[in-house]
Write a structure and sequence with these properties.
- An eight-stranded mixed β-sheet has the order 6-12-13-18-17-16-15-14, sandwiched between helices. It has a five-stranded mixed barrel with strand order 1-2-3-5-4.
- Strand 1 and strand 2 form a beta hairpin.
- It has 460 residues and is an alpha+beta fold.
- The longest helix has 23 residues.
- The chain is built from 13 helices and 18 strands.
- Among the domains are: 93 residues, Beta Barrel (OB fold (Dihydrolipoamide Acetyltransferase, E2P)); 211 residues, 2-Layer Sandwich (BirA Bifunctional Protein, domain 2).
Length: 460
């Protein structure tokens, strides 16, 4: 008999005579002639109540079921006699797949996030984390659906790279050499003998590769893991995280901002409409202001303000910030949240940043002081998207690379696209975990990624 997932049972319009469900025991209680099992299979937040009568052959075994034990139940879906639930299952057979040890750490009580991070392999079985990772799955689907409907092509960009996209140098080195006794040349490690014949790193972005394909296929996007060897142990940073990176040919900064606003609105509306039950958990137990904030993000017209004006607003606010504000300084989270939560009270797109604080590939504006960059800022999180129009002019791009001390021979392929049929093009990066923090009200990035990788932590 084919297994039925529990979430489908709650959508049933009529009783079902014969079916099979499988799952894990959340709780069990006994009466004189029945055992009541709360069963969950991970497909939804709700448990289904299973009624096991004492007439069942293995009833004594059933009475010994512990929290976390796994069972297969054959029976009928019937209208519930109890309050708070429409359906329950009357078991004809309860086959015990496995017993969980009495030391099972997830009991019927609330556990702290800090404790659950120490058992990240088990935390998806809790209500909160089960909901978080179902939402993660649904939003992943919505991202692909959004781009597909717009005619974008999905691109798989390399995880291993010999290029530094951001120019910051905070990259994880990957090598096949014996790190205890590497080959040497003139007193230094001889990377010509390494697997790729040169230094290789984990990628910090798929952008440069996406640009190559945008200049051939038009509109593309990549959605995958990226890595930063940044020794930052804050609640907003992880060493491994996922990025959504669209790249569009024949697109200027204005079109880039349009797409950034559209995708944030679309995904916010999607999660509110399609993940209702799981979202209710976060709105009730994690962040009581969550739903009004998301409604604001989904329905507002985003304010667009030049960086210079944004700095002026911050300076004149009279608010004392931890980090100083001034032209040529990057905006910090506290600045971004002041703009979105206190001043404008809605999402804001800041654009035209000083070129001195932005990477080499961003298009230099006519003032020669700023670049065509933009950040989408939202209440509750701050920056959620960072992007730019790319520098398509070969001479200007080469000059910018020279300012950064970047060896142009390492980027010959990137420069070729400016030699052979260059066009204006734009793109951005949307931090997927930041998006999930926004949508759930969760305040720590470690709690929206299955197995977080942070400084000093590579458990599981």
């Amino acid at each position: 008999m084919k297994r039925t997932k529990i979430f489908k049972l709650f959508k049933s319009d009529a009783p079902v005579d014969h079916m099979l469900i499988k799952g894990w025991v959340r709780t069990r209680r006994d009466s004189k002639t029945f055992s009541f099992i709360e069963l969950n299979d991970g497909s939804c937040l709700k448990n289904i109540q299973v009624i096991a009568e004492s007439l069942l052959d293995n009833y004594e075994e059933i009475r010994n079921l512990t929290t976390g034990s796994a069972v297969a139940v054959t029976g009928a879906l019937i209208e519930s006699q109890g309050k708070g639930q429409k359906w329950e299952v009357r078991a004809d057979k309860v086959a015990i797949i496995s017993f969980a040890s009495e030391s099972y750490p997830l009991q019927k009580k609330r556990h702290s996030d800090e404790f659950l991070r120490t058992i990240a392999h088990l935390r998806p079985r809790t209500n909160k984390y089960g909901a978080a990772f179902r939402i993660r799955s649904e939003v992943s689907y919505a991202i692909h659906q959004f781009f597909r409907e717009k005619g974008f092509r999905y691109l798989h960009t390399p995880i291993l790279t010999g290029s530094d996209c951001e120019g910051a140098g905070e990259m994880f080195r990957v090598t096949a050499l014996d790190i205890d006794d590497p080959p040497k040349k003139e007193g230094k490690t001889d990377h010509s003998q390494d697997f790729f014949g040169k230094v290789a790193n984990l990628t910090v972005s798929g952008q440069l590769s996406a640009e190559m394909f945008a200049l051939a296929l038009g509109d593309v996007y990549t959605f995958g893991p990226t890595f930063r060897a940044e020794n930052s142990n804050t609640r907003r940073h992880a060493a491994e995280f996922w990025m959504v990176e669209p790249e569009m040919a024949f697109c200027d900064l204005e079109g880039n901002m349009d797409l950034g606003e559209e995708i944030v609105k679309h995904l916010t509306r999607f999660v509110m409409e399609e993940c209702g039950e799981d979202m209710e958990l976060f709105a009730k137990f994690v962040d009581k202001a969550l739903m009004p904030r998301l409604e604001n993000i989904a329905s507002s017209e985003y304010v667009r303000v030049p960086y210079r004006e944004a700095v002026d607003i911050l300076v004149k606010s009279g608010k004392k910030f931890e980090y100083p504000v001034g032209f040529g300084k990057d905006l910090q989270t506290e600045h971004e949240r002041h703009l979105t939560e206190d001043h404008f009270k809605k999402p804001v797109i800041v654009y035209d940043y000083p070129k001195s604080i932005k990477p080499f590939y961003m298009r230099v504006n006519d003032d020669h002081e700023t670049v065509a960059a933009m950040d989408v800022l939202v209440p509750g999180v701050g920056e959620i998207i960072g992007g730019s129009q790319r520098e398509e002019r070969l001479d200007v791009l080469q000059a910018r690379m020279g300012e950064f001390g970047m060896p142009q021979e390492n980027y010959w392929w990137y420069l070729d696209t400016r030699r052979f049929g260059t066009v204006p093009h734009s793109g951005f990066g949307l931090g997927f975990e930041r998006l999930l923090m926004l949508m759930t009200g969760v305040r720590n990035i470690r709690d929206v990624i299955p197995f977080p990788r942070t400084p000093g932590n590579i458990e599981f």
